[in-house]
TrEMBL record, chain A:
InterPro entries membership: NA-bd_OB-fold, Ten1_animal_plant
Pfam families listed in its UniProt record: Ten1_2 (PF15490)
Protein name: Putative CST complex subunit Ten1
Any GO MF annotation of the entry: telomerase inhibitor activity
Organism this protein belongs to: Medicago truncatula
GO CC annotation, single: CST complex
Alphabetical GO biological process terms: negative regulation of telomere maintenance via telomerase; response to heat; shoot system development; stem cell population maintenance; telomere maintenance
From TrEMBL, chain B:
Primary location class: nucleus
Gene3D superfamilies: Nucleic acid-binding proteins
InterPro entries tied to this protein: NA-bd_OB-fold, NA-bd_OB_tRNA, RFA2-like
Organism: Medicago truncatula (Barrel medic)
Highest rank taxon of the organism: Eukaryota
Species classification: Eukaryota, Viridiplantae, Streptophyta, Embryophyta, Tracheophyta
Keywords: Chromosome, DNA-binding, Nucleus, Telomere
Pfam families tied to this protein: tRNA_anti-codon
Domain OB as annotated: residue spans: 52-138
Descriptive protein name: CST complex subunit STN1
A molecular-function term among this protein's GO annotations: telomeric DNA binding
One cellular component term from this protein's GO annotations in UniProt: chromosome, telomeric region
UniProt keyword Kinase, yes or no: no
Compartments in which it is found: Chromosome, Telomere; Nucleus
Amino acid sequence: MAFFEGKSGALVSLQDMRPSSPFFKQGTSVRIIGKLHEYSSETGLATVIDGNDILKVSTEHLKDLKFQVGSVYQFIGELLIRTDNEGVLQAHVGRNVDGIDLNLYHQSLLLLKQFQANHLNNSAT
Amino acid sequence: MQQNKNPFPISLHNTHVKLLAFDLLTLTPPISPNHSFTRNSIPITRAETVGTITLRDHKPFKFLRFAIDDGTGCIPCILWLNHMTSPHLARRRSPQDLCLLADAAARSAEVVKVGNVARVRGRVTEYKGGVQITVTDVISERDPNVEVLHWVECVNLARNCYNLVNVSSSSGSGSGSGSVVPKLN
C-alpha cells in the first residue's frame, strides 16, 4: 500500500504561501500556478508570480521541462521552509499551462473548495 | 444536501460517474465481494477522473500502477497488462479479443507518464480496503483548462444529478428493490 500513500497536492494560490497562511508549513504538499518571472539553469531555481505574490520553486527533479520566462507553469510539490522563513517549493511534477484561463481557474477553485467543505460537513453530520 | 427529490428514474449502474478524488475515495466499501461501492447508498461501479499523474510503477506484461492527483486527492489506478499470459482471461476470451485488449492496454500505458494530465476511466474496485480504479482506458489531455472544466463538471453533476438519484431507481435492473445491487463484473 505504500506506493499509493503519496499525498495529494492541495490546490492553493500563491497568496496561501505567505507565512501567515495555514498552508505555510514544513512539508505541506501543494499545487500552485503562476507566471515564470525568473529561472536559473545553474541553481534550478524558478521564481513564479501571481499578482503581488511570489514563490521560489526548486526544479531539480524536473528533467524534461523547458522554462520560458513569461509562460505560466503549474507545480506540485512539498514546501521547504528555510531558516530565513522563506518557503521554497520542492517540485516533483511541473508543466507548462500557457493558455489556461486564470480567471476561470480561480473562480472554479473557490467553487470546488465550497463544494468540498459542504460535502465533508454533510458527511460528518 | 438534496436527495431523492428527482421523480425521474436515473441509474448510475455501469455509468462512468465523474467524481472528484475526495468524493471517490470516501465511497462506502462494498458489504461483500459481490457488491459495489456506494455513494449515499447508490451503487457506483465505474468512474471517470481527470488529473495529473504523480506516481508510476510498471511491471511489464503484468500491470502498470499509477496515481492520479486532481487536487482534491490521489486516486490509485491499476492498468492490467497480462492479457496474453493470464490463464483466467484465456478461458474467457478469444485469442483475437485478447490481442485487441492487450494492444489497447499497451496504448493506454504509453500515455501514463509522471507529470502528464490524463482522463482515466474504469471500474471502481477494492484494493487492501480502499478504492482503486481498474483502468479500461487512459486519454492524454493537452488542453490546460481541462482539469478546471472537470472540477466544474463534477460539482455540477454531483449537485444536479448524483445527489438526486433515487436509491430505488439506481440499480437499472427495473426491480426497484431499493437495495444494494450486486455488481455484474
